[in-house]
Amino acid sequence: MTATCKSAAKKPSKGQSLRGDLAPERITAILKGLDEAYPDAKCALTHRSPWELLVATILSAQCTDVRVNMVTPELFRRFPTPQAMAKATLDQIEEIIRSTGFFHNKAKSIQGAARKLITDFGGEVPQTLVELTTLPGAARKTANVVLGVCFGKAEGVVVDTHVFRIARRLGLAKGDTPQKIEQELMRILPQNRWIGFSHQIIDHGRKVCDARKPKCDSCNLEQLCHSEDKT
Ligand code: SF4
After folding, report:
1. What are the residues whose beta carbons fall under 8 Å from the beta carbon of 108, sequence distance 6 or more?
2. Which of these, 105, 137, 145, 223, has the minimum number of CB atoms within 10 Å of its CB?
3. CA distance linking residue 148 with residue 186, whole number of Å
4. Are 182 and 156 in contact (CB under 8 A)?
């Protein structure tokens, strides 16, 4: 999950009324459109446990999920548990995750998260946002991914680069940081949609609402979208 947002941080389109855009019936129509287009949207990071998803999500910063999925089988074959990862050297971790980019920092985060899980949480991935964000490398986005996907807990909304861009294009939010966008989305979306909404929007961003060339002709939200990025 890439998290670069600057390139997508355009202002909402001219004359766009955020108030009108946030009418409950419009939001309901957008959610319905997402359900129709992406009924089976789910996390694309391969994982078998909360621990594996935590690590995969840390690796996904500034990297595609496809690339992460290429390195995690070997990483978890060599270091299947937090206990094993805590004993791994940084060199050993870096060698495996190098292709995901920023591998020095990511190796430190993964090793540090493994060690903190052991010292503070009995070797288990915690199930609250507050606890998860104490782990090295785990900010709100990572914590929200793990909580939503593994534990079905909606404490926040995952805002990656797709959610950041498309929430603005659809006029659902206007903030210029992922944190602000998340707070806006939490205010307007029903809480029972917080987890699924992000998965659906990420699918929409990958398949239709591309950052540079959105395929508006084949977008089922086109009638609801006033973005100046429309093609
Ligand atoms: S109409 Fe175009 S810009 Fe708007 S959501 Fe659809 S693909 Fe994205």
Report:
1. 90, 136, 137
2. 223
3. 14
4. yes
**Which residue ranges have their beta carbon within 6 Å of ligand 1?**
169-170, 208-209, 214-216, 219, 221-222, 225, 227, 229-230
User: Catalytic annotation on 160?
Assistant: yes
> pTM of the predicted model, to two decimals?
0.90
CA distance 212 to 210: 6
In sequence order, what DSSP letters do the residues of 51-86 get, joined into one string?
A: HHHHHHHHHTTTS-HHHHHHHHHHHHHH--SHHHHH
Q: Bin 167: left if φ > 0, else alpha if -120 < ψ < 50, else beta.
A: alpha
What does DSSP assign to residue 128? S
Residue 25 CB-density burial (10 A; 0-12 exposed, 13-18 middle, 19+ buried)? exposed
Catalytic-labelled residue, pool 21, 65, 116, 160: 160
For 147-194, the three-class secondary structure string (H helix, E strand, C coil) is: HHHHHCCCCCCCCCHHHHHHHHHCCCCCCCCHHHHHHHHHHHCCHHHH
Q: Of the residues 65, 106, 116, 141, which is catalytic? A: 141
Tens-of-pLDDT digits for all 231 residues of the chain?
543 333 344 444 444 445 588 999 999 999 999 999 999 999 999 999 999 999 999 999 999 999 999 999 999 999 999 999 999 999 999 999 999 999 999 999 999 999 999 999 999 999 999 999 999 999 999 999 999 999 999 999 999 999 999 999 999 999 999 999 999 999 999 999 999 999 999 999 999 999 999 999 999 999 999 999 999
